[in-house]
Design a protein that fits this description.
Helices cover 26% and strands 34% of the residues. It binds guanosine-5'-diphosphate and magnesium ion.
Length: 598
């Protein structure tokens, strides 16, 4: 295939704006699958992904398109994940392309993440083609949304394609535009092999599968290859393309996209962003910008039944095979027993892993409130990374504490700017910029402590703006803050899994609120339960869960059989998420109560 007849592109779209539906239309138009094979949304492989509507792992499809000029073109669609937690993967997908479709729901308008991703595409010199999707909806306002794209993103949108992925409108027009406007890839077919790992995933039978964009040279069956970031070498077993069915080829040539299988045991052997080269004739240097993706959010995961510890370990090991950004190590909690401290890219990543452990591996877990990584400087001149609040050194040893900050861009309708600013200020944010657009939206830029963002910031932002605000963020670095550890004591015993690191100004308020919440969550027992919040040895709040009077239980277990059964079922249900801490039973909600204190 001549380079002239290749087009590599991504789709930038906010969740639900129609990326998967559109991709399916392309596959249909290009005849990649027989009609009976067209399951709904073939591009999203995992069930969980379908339910949540999130594309977790980038995938690609090769489309063979016969254009109006009579020529057949190879269109490589490189799918991008749609959430900020995976922004590094988005940037790798974009680097592998010469063009991008910016798909915007014509009944909604532009969202912050699409703005950020489009900026990135423009930065990488991609040709961006705006597409207004869902024009079949009566509420579609293509002219207003075009104005918004021009105003907020700053790219020409007058000749944006008006499309409906659902009704099949504008599909060929988009494909024609890709052929006409996106430049063909450049590359030296004779040079030493250089291929970018855009994505990698674990296959039970094949080991790691790497999705690559070949920049120079070729990747062939039987070739000895080297991963440039790790220096590890492998022999290529299979190369091929997704159509979306996998189809084997003899080689992948410069300018092309496809998968490489090389007996790599785990995804660590083929990291996203790494460069593959020929082991015998290596490229002098790797492609720029490889980044080790580091977890930013940590939480403790504990089985509710201690005999599930081994199962949890095996399940984490399996998930990790496919996800090199997931970290875990054994951790022991005085309150919760044996479990794991896990590191995630963000809160969404954490929720996905949790859900998969429970759903696919049938585990019942207690999860502690997520925390960020603090840098603690001690008087002895050491710097300690603290991923668990319970492990914060004693006050007397601490010189200072630094916490991570993020730079967040929030796009919100003008009428709701006031509320968003109030929330950001409450979350210790510092305003950096405020940009009013003519299209009625405002871009609010804040520097926010990540610790506040991983609690309930997104949820509150979404609910207070009825879902109209959208957010994009990036890590902006560490800064010193006046932080203290807030402990919770239940009947005088510190429950380590409930400790939190909070700003001193909020400590009293948070302590009081948390104690109050726990009082409502911890079931009454035959004795009084004292709940205290403390800073060091100083108790700042106290609540009591009163003992049950004997006759209450007696009444519950009275004659009514159905009621009794219901009660027992309810208890059984409830038990799943309970943990015995000393003589007190604490429900799962209690461990996450700190997330919803506002
Ligand atoms: P993604 O999250 O960007 O991949 O979005 P999906 O392709 O999953 O689409 C989200 C929802 O919008 C689904 O319910 C689709 O059926 C619907 N949808 C997609 N395209 C259109 C369209 O052109 N018109 C209408 N009315 N609905 C659409
Ligand atoms: Mg999708």
């Amino acid at each position: 295939m001549k380079l002239d007849n290749i087009r590599n592109f991504s789709i930038i779209a906010h969740i639900d704006h129609g990326k998967s539906t559109l991709a399916d239309r392309f596959i249909q138009e290009c005849g990649g699958l027989a009609d009976r094979e067209m399951a709904d949304q073939v591009l999203d492989g995992m069930d969980l992904e379908r339910e949540r509507g999130i594309t977790i792992k980038a995938q690609s499809v090769r489309l063979l398109y016969t254009a109006d000029d009579g020529e057949t073109y190879t269109l490589n669609l490189i799918d991008t994940p749609g959430h900020v937690d995976f922004s590094y993967e988005v940037s790798r997908s974009l680097v592998a392309c010469e063009g991008a479709l910016l798909v915007v729901d014509a009944s909604q308008g532009v969202e912050a993440q699409s703005v950020a991703n489009t900026y990135q595409a423009v930065e990488y010199d991609l040709e961006v083609i705006p597409v207004l999707n869902k024009i079949d909806l009566p509420s579609a306002e293509p002219e207003r949304v075009k104005g918004e794209i021009e105003e907020v993103i700053g790219i020409e949108a007058e000749d944006a394609v008006e499309a409906s992925a659902k009704e099949g409108i504008g599909i060929r027009e988009i494909l024609e535009r890709l052929v006409r406007d996106v430049p063909p890839p450049e590359g030296d077919p004779e040079g030493p092999a250089k291929a970018l790992v855009v994505d990698s995933w674990y296959d039970k039978y094949q080991g790691a599968v790497a999705l690559v964009r070949v920049m120079n040279g070729s990747i062939r069956k039987g070739q000895r290859i080297q991963m440039m970031a790790t220096g590890r070498t492998f022999t290529v077993g299979t190369v091929g393309v997704m159509t979306p069915k996998p189809v084997e080829l003899d080689s992948l040539e410069a300018g092309g996209v496809g998968f490489v299988i090389a007996g790599i045991k785990d995804v660590d052997g083929a990291k996203v962003g790494d460069t593959i080269t020929d082991a015998e004739r290596p490229a002098p240097e790797p492609l720029p910008g490889f980044q080790e993706v580091k977890p930013q959010v940590f939480a403790g995961l504990y089985p509710t039944e201690s005999d599930q510890y081994e199962e949890l370990r095996d399940a984490l090991a399996k998930l990790r095979l496919n996800d090199s950004s997931l970290q875990y190590e054994p951790e022991t909690s005085h309150a919760l027993g044996f479990g794991f401290r896990c590191g995630f890219l963000g809160k969404l990543h954490m929720e996905i892993i949790q859900e998969r452990l429970e759903r696919e591996y049938d585990l019942d877990l207690i999860t502690t409130a997520p925390t960020v990584v603090y840098l603690v400087h001690t008087h002895t001149g050491e710097t300690v990374r603290v991923e668990n609040p319970a492990e914060l050194p004693e006050v007397g040893e601490i010189e200072s504490i630094e916490e991570p900050f993020m730079l967040a861009n929030i796009l919100v309708p003008q009428s709701q700017v006031g509320e968003v600013i109030r929330l950001a200020e409450e979350k210790r944010g510092r305003q950096k910029n405020l940009h009013y657009t003519n299209a009625g939206q405002v871009m609010v830029t804040y520097e926010l402590p990540m610790n506040e963002v991983v609690t309930d910031f997104f949820e509150r932002l979404k609910s207070m703006t009825s879902g109209y605000a959208s957010i994009d963020y990036e890590l902006s670095g560490y800064q010193a803050s006046d932080l203290v550890r807030l402990d919770i004591l239940v009947n005088e015993d510190r429950v380590d899994a409930l400790s939190l690191i909070v700003h001193r100004d909020q400590a009293y308020y948070r302590g009081r609120e948390l104690a109050k919440k726990l009082k409502d969550m911890i079931p009454r027992q035959m004795f009084d339960i004292a709940i205290q919040a403390s800073l060091g040895s100083r108790v700042i709040a106290r609540e009591t869960v009163k003992a049950l009077r004997k006759n209450v239980t007696a009444k519950c277990y009275g004659g009514d059989v159905t009621r009794k059964r219901k009660l027992m079922e309810k208890q059984k249900e409830g038990k799943k998420r309970m943990k015995q801490v000393g003589s007190v039973t604490i429900p799962q909600e209690a461990f996450l109560a700190a997330l919803s204190v506002d």
